[in-house]
Queue: 3 jobs
Job 1
Amino acid sequence: MMNTLVIRVDPERRTWWKQTLQDLIPEVKVVLKDEDEGEYAPSDVKYAVVWNPPNGWLATFPNLKCVASVGAGVSHILKDPNYPRSVPIIRTVSESLRMRMTEYVVLHVLRFHRRLPEIEQAQAERKWVQYIEPLASDVHVGLLGLGNLGAPVAAALNSLGYRVSGWSRRGNAVDGVRVFTGPSGLQELLSEAEVLVCMLPQTPSTENILDGETFSAMPAGSVLINVGRGEHLVEAELLAALDSGHLRGATLDVFREEPLPAENPLWSNPKVLITGHTASAIEPATGGRVIADNLRAFMNGDSVRDIVDIEQGY
Ligand code: NDP
């Protein structure tokens, strides 16, 4: 039986993924989870390309050799208590993902720094306001996560003159960034962070990290940008920090429940800007090529750079 690659991704682009991956990896048979049911047996499946598979599904393939995540994050796979943890996971990162995230974070840092929300409000009220903002060199930006996405974001913010600090697990040096680690390092970073940007992966050690205690440790009038995962944020404690005025605003791209339910109070909070998990999406054309190249390298026994450390959870 031919080696089979099964795809389980968002419905809209399924057919596109099937065609693209079949063209790029002709040596395997590419099938879609629902449409092609009956055309393959679970034991044929050697590879899976997934976004947010239901718990237990990947464990139904006894000969699974490797899983590719359609995304840089893998918490949508590792949330599954039945995930067969000896099966390697490859995450998908690309230059376009880094560029899009850099654009997004720079946009929202500048939006807060140059007070766009207040200026738009003033225009709505036909008020002439003149804010003289501090120079970027007097604004502290704290980055939680200095990896594939955090490092280029730090470089872009540096080039605009911002004072950039970052927090990571191992504390590897990043050019132009004061790097902190551990709980005490986090407190030091927070004490100066006028803009806090979360670009962490979701793991048991990072869940709920954006809570009331974190917000209290930040200077009064600071702002939050969360592009990590919804599970990083304790929504009620953010709303309390915004209501008290301690935080001036928040830009949120990721949520515990997506799409964010219509009744969620975040929607109507004037200090919150919501984007629909689009800070940095995998572009179909380049994303497909990256996934195909990674899977082919894995099949050939070559080293694959973006293999996940399953024990660390990212
Ligand atoms: P990387 O794995 O390259 O980087 C993760 C960073 O977080 C590293 O610097 C790592 O430290 C740090 N980190 C992990 N755990 C801890 C911890 N316990 N304490 C301190 N630092 C920690 O991931 P990416 O940069 O590629 O992506 C990060 C996340 O961004 C993804 O997991 C995903 O959730 C999110 N994302 C969101 C998107 C969106 O559109 N909103 C798009 C793509 C990704 P170290 O350097 O020591 O390993």
Job 2
Amino acid sequence: VFDLAIHGKTFSGDLQELWTYVEKGVIACVSKKRVGSADETLELSADEMLLPAATDLHVHLRDWGHSHKETVESATKSALLGGVTTVADMPNTQPELTTPDLVRRRVQLIKSSSYVDFCLHCSLPREPKLLIEMKEAGAYALKFYPKDLYFFEEYAEYASKLGLKSVVHAEELALIGTAAEAKAELNAVKSLVRRIRKEWEVRFAHISTAGALRRILGAKLNSSKVTLEVAPHHVFVDRQSCVKRIGVASAVRPPLRSKRDVSELFFALVSNLIDFYATDHAPHTRDEKFCPNPSPGFPALEIAYPLLMTKVSDPAIACKVYCERPAEYLGIKKGFIKPGYDADMVVFRRFQQRIQGSNFVSKARITPFEGEYLGYSVKKVFIRGELACSSGLPQRVSVRHIK
Ligand code: DOR
Ligand code: ZN
């Protein structure tokens, strides 16, 4: 007798009518035929389908000095509501995550209040040799912001030796906010691509321009360890349309781009050239967004997965970039509905709904997608076979810290 059985349209390599059986939190069997009984059986209706839950590699959970923007609780509830069961937190916290002690404190904070599994990026410590302790304290990757890129080689080399991944926000600091700002990303990417050594694992976060995209695709031909991440706001919305919708609140780093950049990024996404789709969920209050010097970034965890499914209309692509590859990258058994994998799964329902930031559970409610239609809603979310969210109600189940 299995713990749970789910029967209906299921994405497992392709979309087909399947029985998925769960035992002790793990997918035990996936079959076209019924193979046994279960303590609980869920029968999906014709407008529902079962997909793997998503892993989001780029999320600002906030809290600490930024708790007015977002708390770990509000951010991870949003994740769950959006079908995301693993998040990778970013280190530009208040205070910034630059010491082993802060990493330990952050692990404790998130463990005690998160609704989903998590891992941590850390910032550059005072000296590269402290990276050993950062890793021991629980960081899985090192994040370079534009201010840190000057020290890239020194730290990336050390990180690589320790098995810590490097993640770069590629924008040339000196150009940000100047007339030459449009070149900030490409310049930084060109310089980094020259400096990266073959053995370093380097992920380019939120790539936003066609020029940078092409450069990185070129670099990927030489190194299988270079990876590329895109965010929903860069791949689905151009600057002009966003400004029409939300004006100055369109601010984000890197900035929103032209229709041409967006269509080239979108084409790369549907052509399976992009490694990861990640929200860059970056919450700010309404007042911080609508002011003369607006804070950059948007919340997106609640809509990212249904939005991706709506835009690419191919679960194979959606699952690759938001479930399978991010989980493989973290070395966790998630992202697939197949035996041996954690039973982290989402029931999607075909359902037309308008995106309304004011309905977000995230404390941040300004979205570049305001008024757009989603073709799906997230009906149920399972974490290791436990029902963690049903009809919009998140529940706390036991969560893991991934190192
Ligand atoms: O838009 C952004 N928001 N880009 C960043 O690099 C930081 C982030 C934030 O933390 O708000
Ligand atoms: Zn970010």
Job 3
Amino acid sequence: MSKILKANPIVESSSEELKKKAESLLSRGVTPRLDVILVGSNPASMTYVRNKKKRAEGLGAICNIHHLDEQISTEEFLAKVNSIQADPAVHGCFVQLPLPKQLDQINTHQLIRADKDVDGFHPLNACSAFSGEELNQHLIACTPSGIIDMLDFYDYDLTGKKVVVIGRSMIVGRPVAMLCLARNATVTICHSRTKDLREETKQADIIISAIGKANFLDKSFLNNQKNQVVIDVGINLDENGKLVGDLKAEDMQEYAGAYSPVPGGVGPMTINSLMKNLFKAAEKLNELGN
Ligand code: GUN
């Protein structure tokens, strides 16, 4: 039987720390505030935003959701985003993705100023992740830093390990590869043009899958002699409309040493990182007197 890397114990321990931080900020007259910009009514985005708000409020922060019309023009959208992030009471801000088609031309990575960019998408923040600086000091992309927190919590030392990342997005694949590199892993990034994915994954000590295909990664990708750790970043609906990851869970039970479940794995870790970023941003802005 393999070990299941649940987010719950990590989220609980982070919550204790973050609540203490909230009290400390409150004693200095500061209530951490997160403003979320949601355009239209994509059902998945609405669920994500609701969950983020619930978690932020549970920690003693304020969370305002700005729900904008699906048809909003680029000019109106940019004006709204800029007025929200200019408010000195706002410590953290993000635009829930995806955006509707008419806003396609906007560079979402540079939309939110770096010091309030709790998504960690801004080039200045991405650069911190890419240069291997200390995670705790910077606003690092949430899913990648959540994965590292998970590996740390369950005591996986990445030094000298072979990590195979599947997916090369700017939000997950590339930054998580760089964070693993900063932990002295040997990292391979695979993608849709990789010639023989199985050949790569079978050699890995740790596989991080951000493919986005339900139950794609089955036992044929694993090497059951290696006690592999498999991290599932996928959030997919299967043919019955059930939420599943990229991994075929029953195969993982038999062939992997450990794996993260969906739901209850990387998803909650991502929200956890968002909260850590919010409190970091609030602390920093407060120290600077902003
Ligand atoms: N949509 C899906 N994942 C994310 C994320 O991490 N941040 C934002 N802003 N939107 C998303």
